[in-house]
Amino acid sequence: MNAYDYIDDYMEGSLNGDLLRQFESILSEDAELQLVVKNYKGVKQLSSGMLEMDLLDEVNAAGVAYNNVGESKGLLKKGIIFLVLSATIVVACIVIKNRFIDTVDSNSNKTFASLYQEPIWPVKRSSADTILQYAMYEFLQKDDIEAAKLLLQTDTLTDNIITNRYWISEMYLKKRRLDSTALYLPKAESMPIKAERIKVIESYLKEFR
Amino acid sequence: MVLKDLMVEIKSSKIRREKVITMLYADKKLRNGIKKIVRIDQNSKSHFDEIFNYTLVQFLKNVMEKEDLVIRENIYSYLFGIARNLHLMKLRKEKRQPQELSENENLTQADDITIDLKIMNSEKKELIIKVLTLMGDQCKNILMYWSSDYRMKEIAEMLGYKNESSVRKKKFDCMKKLSLYMESHPVTAQMLQE
């Protein structure tokens, strides 16, 4: 018989008859079998402990995986909350801008547009103010305010300086560049012929600048 | 999953057992129930983790080792019973006052659930870890299933041996190896009997 096949039965006391006699006969002569039988309970306890350790490893591994998922879920949750908050803030800013700031702007634009009246531009006059005509051409036809301004500034005739400044001011006003308008606008008393208009421009500046 | 099926899964193979463990680990009812038991005295996460993990180990071990295991109520009651007993055992080990313990409502020991984890004793745990490093994986697997009363045929199938006779022979060699270790470390043998 292979004695090691019957160790468990022997230790459990379930071996009897011929098998028991044969086993005991081998046991009395086999030192290795004696060693195993002697330490049987301890070996079983240790083996059970090894099972516990193995199960604990499996449980710990599940715990690590569970916590990792929890952490990444937490991070994802935080990320989503952050994104939602950011998006909400951006949307709120856009809404405020559209509803409030743009309304103010468009209201003021509307008001300025409704109040603003263009002057009678000196497009065709006499042969004496050619530079002014050229300048007006650059401004009205080509929409080139800088070229028009340059032309008017090159006209250094003393009589024309105030007139030219006035027209530069008008050009800036049409473009709604109010600071530049104010910079070039002559005083009403220095240009009596346009005194009324200059007062109107001054009222625009006071209102919208 | 029905309790009976769950127990079959735990016994059947390591892979299936791991799936059950993953499922139990994420079970909110189980986690919250054990939190309630544990938080009565301590709030620390490490204490909860220890009790939770040992609860699962004790449950798995009982399923694997006790062929006649009967869980009368539902699985939660059984697991909570293990957790409660583990928690009480830990409190006693920390020498908490009995009055302090008795003040805790519902903290009565579940009489029919025995805690017999060797790894809860740090000396025994150390010894087991030491022995594990001496044994190969094959020996470890055969002996731990043998200690859980698996049949040789089942072990052969689970571990991929040709037949049960090969497992028997291997088992004997492994037992011899461990016996020799215990002979040369008599204190070990004594400690395990305690």
Explain this structure.
The complex is a heterodimer of chains A (209) and B (194). The mean pLDDT of chain A is 86. Chain A is built from 9 helices and no strands. In chain A, helix 5 runs antiparallel to helix 6 (145-154) and helix 7 runs antiparallel to helix 8 (178-184). With 209 residues, chain A is mainly α. Chain B has 194 residues and is mainly alpha-helical. Helix content of chain B is 72%, strand content 0%. In chain B, helix 8 crosses helix 10 (164-184). The longest helix of chain B is centred in the N-terminal third of the chain and has 21 residues, at 45-65.
Quick gist of this model?
The complex is a heterodimer of chains A (209) and B (194). Chain A contains nine helices and no strands.
Approximate strand percentage of chain A: under 5%
Number of helices of chain B: 11
Low-confidence stretches of chain A: none
**Largest sheet, strands/sense/barrel of chain B:** none
- E-strand count of chain A: 0
Q: What characterizes the major β-sheet of chain A?
A: none
Protein chain pair with the most extensive contact, residues per chain: A-B, 34 and 52 residues
Count all strands of chain B and give the number: 0
Can you write the helix and strand succession of chain B as a string?
HHHHHHHHHHH
The string of secondary-structure elements of chain A, in order, is HHHHHHHHH
Individual helix count of chain A:
9
Ranges of chain B with pLDDT <50 over ≥5 residues? none
Helix content of chain B: over 70%
Report the mean per-residue pLDDT of chain A as an integer.
Answer: 86
Q: Average pLDDT value of chain B?
A: 85
Helix- and strand-based class of chain B?
mainly alpha
Structural class of the secondary structure composition of chain A?
mainly alpha
Q: Radius of gyration of chain B, Cα only, in angstroms?
A: 19 Å
Strand content of chain B: under 5%
